[in-house]
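In response to reviewer comment 3 from the previous cycle, which asked for concrete evidence that the modeling workflow produces usable outputs, we include below a single protein chain processed end to end. The sequence was submitted unchanged, and the resulting structure tokens are shown without manual editing.
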Amino acid sequence: MGYIGAYIKKHHPDLNITFYQGCFDDDEKIISGCAKADIVAFSCTTPTFPYTQKLAKGIKAINPQSHIVVGGYHPSAAPEASLVDHIDQVVTGEGESALSEIIKGNREKTIQGRAMQFDELPWPDRELIQNDRNIQVAYNDNQKRITSFQSHRGCPFMCRYCLDGFYKVLYENNRKATTRYRSVTDLLDEIDFVVDKYQLDLIKFSDPTWNTKIDWVVDFCKEKIKRKIEIPFYPNMHATLCSEEMIALMADAGCYEIALGVESGSPKILQQIGKGTTVKTITRAVGWAKKYGLVVRGYFILGMPDESNEDLKMTEQLAESLELDEYGFSILCPYPGTQMYDKDKFHDVNWEDADEYSNNFWKTNHLSNQELKDWQKYLTDKFKEKLTWHNRAIGHGVQ
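The workflow returned the following structure tokens.
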């Protein structure tokens, strides 16, 4: 949203733009503020789409002429299903150029946003999105001032459970959609500026997978060292695209922690996921990270279609043998736009009650929904001293 706001301000400097966020602003404030607008644009995921509909209805009740647009992952995955009452227009894909076209008067029911290049994007407008509020939340939870940066767009991997994966919903299901990398110089310029402005203690990368291009990682680390930018950083990593030399350089450049999508300890399930990781590459990456003093967080997904008790026992064994610093355990959620979604089965799901930590309907060919929840509870109890913050915050993820 910070990128979209900055892009719109650059190309439409006479507009008055206001930003609201449901995590901080109550419904009354959002509805009354947005009802004064000519155009109201929401970014939403599948679990937040019903809330978007509720707000849109409230805005239209006050100002029926307000033009309401929705974009983000859910509208990109299910554009026709997103054109419901009180919503006038859907943006699929990246939102910067599409919203600009809407401001110019484009009223096509569905607009495909084009893939943006970083050299045409201003830095995210952090003042507009009130980034300081998120930083304060991070400080309250971790006693560290943290915010995020984007280093690339798109993902080359084909994970079956992910909207960035097999179907690549932001890019019209184009499996050959290119991953665009940001200039290391520009990224470090922004990091240097934002760290100083907000007095940060740690930076994170919002990229689903940070090390999709090893040469880029090497260039980033070398330049960060050269410029003596000492802020620690924390990325999401792909285990197979790691080398010991790269991990050592990351440590020298101030990498504090890495997060790995371990997902499973079963070779069969890892192959079904389609990520391109193996037990060997996962174990190797964790070993290198530990050797160079990095904190290692591992994420595990329970519930791939062919998963059985035997597969989950292998996951338990791998989780134990890795001796990670932090563990996160979630249950697969078949969001629209993933290979797991079945329109006939899941068209009436209440997505407000479903996310990657818990749902009441997903099962495998061998395990019921309750059995998956039992496994999740068992594993979160077993690793309760090392759970990720989110698993702890929701009571080990099991209700």
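The radius of gyration is 21 Å. We consider this sufficient to address the reviewer's concern, and the full set will be provided in the supplementary archive.
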